[in-house]
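Tokens for chain A. Residues wanted.
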């Protein structure tokens, strides 16, 4: 096994976040799942976007956010995700490359040169209410057309950790790409990390998730408390932890304001959440926690150090709008 040239490579949704503030009345009027996430078709996303107030646009997507955080902490990050040949695709590519994340997945184009007319680059319409809760409305678009042929196999084999997100695991085409990537990483002797992403992702995918875990395809699993319960069918968290810890070498559970815990081959460590003067927007908290944990893991840090680094990164992200770091994370974490 050669020494890794990259710390973490991720495969996930290539999404542009469109973030605006609103009141609870707007959430109720549009029947949105406050604090949660729903999938929208292109037409529904157009209607909601038209009703939103002033918004800011930045490249997003769960795993892409994590890679941006890793780059901000000085880690070597790469990302594979499908964009379209359109304005939002250009925004996504520019943002990722400007942040220092290796991203060169070709955009989808029509072969006849007449202009791309397929699904647009994915977008997530995020409404933030005064209590800092974020309600996400995602239209995946082109991101769900990621095919195995789009993978850079040499790049995947060169990374210490392959990181996969549950959001992209549903559709058949990107799922096939992820499973191919797992084969490549395993063949190169690398670690595979997986995040369940969101409870809505588990419905309809529980059997596929469970099969992947049962077959030992995952070395490191990220979940929050509710996701762990939903995946296992357990009634209490302790039961869910026991079921999952027997199947994955490293299990990481985030518990919101209560902090996080990790179980690694029988060793269990818990850390509290870092204090924040004011919670402004919880968008990306889990993504940046994973970023901190993963980059510390890739550098050979202890389990407690990985958890602490994740907690620091998560605290920074919830102190402002958006899911990309604004403070200099290199001054906040030591690797």
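Reply:
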């Amino acid at each position: 096994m050669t020494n890794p040239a990259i710390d973490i490579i991720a495969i996930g949704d290539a999404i542009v976040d469109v973030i605006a503030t609103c009141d609870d009345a707007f959430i109720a009027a549009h029947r949105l799942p406050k604090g949660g996430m729903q999938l929208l078709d292109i037409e529904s996303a157009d209607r909601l976007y038209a009703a939103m107030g002033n918004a800011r646009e930045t490249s997003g997507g769960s795993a892409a956010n994590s890679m941006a955080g890793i780059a901000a902490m000085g880690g070597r990050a790469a990302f594979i995700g499908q964009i379209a040949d359109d304005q939002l695709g250009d925004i996504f590519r520019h943002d990722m490359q400007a942040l220092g994340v290796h991203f060169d997945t070709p955009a989808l184009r029509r072969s006849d040169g007449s202009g791309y007319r397929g699904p647009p680059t994915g977008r997530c319409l995020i409404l933030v209410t005064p209590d800092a809760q974020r309600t996400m409305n995602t239209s995946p678009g082109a991101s769900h057309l990621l095919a195995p042929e789009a993978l850079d196999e040499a790049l995947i084999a060169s990374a210490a950790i392959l990181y996969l997100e549950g959001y992209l695991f549903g559709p058949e085409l990107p799922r096939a790409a992820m499973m191919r990537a797992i084969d490549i990483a395993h063949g190169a002797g690398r670690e595979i990390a997986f995040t369940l992403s969101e409870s809505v992702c588990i419905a309809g995918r529980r059997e596929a998730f469970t099969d992947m875990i049962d077959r030992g395809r995952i070395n490191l699993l990220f979940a929050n408390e509710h996701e762990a319960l939903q995946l296992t069918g357990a009634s209490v968290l302790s039961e869910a932890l026991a079921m999952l810890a027997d199947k994955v070498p490293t299990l990481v559970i985030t518990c919101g304001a209560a902090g996080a815990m990790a179980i690694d081959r029988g060793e269990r460590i818990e850390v509290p959440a870092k204090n924040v003067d004011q919670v402004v927007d919880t968008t990306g908290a889990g993504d940046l926690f994973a970023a901190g944990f993963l980059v510390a893991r890739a550098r050979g840090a202890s389990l407690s150090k990985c958890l602490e680094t994740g907690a620091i990164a998560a605290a920074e992200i919830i102190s402002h709008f958006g899911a990309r770091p604004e403070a200099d994370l290199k001054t906040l974490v030591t690797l």
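The mean pLDDT is 90. Residues 6-13+61-103+143-332 form a domain with the UDP-N-acetylmuramoyl-L-alanine:D-glutamate ligase fold (CATH 3.40.1190.20).
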